[in-house]
Amino acid sequence: QVQLVESGGGLVQAGGSLTLSCAASGLPFSAYAVGWYRQAPGKERDVVATRNWSGSVTYYSDSAKGRFTISRDNVKNMVYLQMNNLKAEDTAIYYCNAHRSTPPNDYWGQGTQVTVSS
Q1: Is 26 left (phi over 0), alpha (psi -120 to 50) or beta?
Q2: How far is residue 50's CA from residue 22's CA, in Å, rounded to a whole number?
Q3: pLDDT tens across 59-100, in order?
Q4: What is the DSSP letter of 85?
Q5: Strand-strand pairing, 92-100 and 18-25
Q6: Are the beta carbons of 12 and 72 closer than 8 angstroms?
Q7: Which residues fall within 8 angstroms of residue 102, CB to CB, at 6 or more apart?
Q8: How many CB atoms lie within 10 A of CB 7?
Q9: What is d(CA 68, CA 105) in angstroms, rounded to the nearest whole number?
């Protein structure tokens, strides 16, 4: 059974930092691209950052560039999102994702709430 379990969310003041963690199990983790997505109230789920299977290719949304860093540990089967200089507009539920194209598989965690007070 595949599981992605996020942790590390919480309440933080604007300008502060948080590190989200995602523990993966039940899948060949190193074969999957990983990513963080977020969904704010009343909005669609949007990509924040992704990293390919080897960690050599990363993508950041415009809002994440320069403030967030995605990393992965293929030994520990972990994904991290370091978030610095947080803003009120970063408030959302953050979801961990594992994706593979061949064969196609897509897995999601249950989400962790991040609230940034201004």
Answers
A1: left
A2: 13
A3: 999 999 999 999 999 999 999 999 999 999 999 999 999 999
A4: S
A5: unpaired
A6: no
A7: none
A8: 13
A9: 26
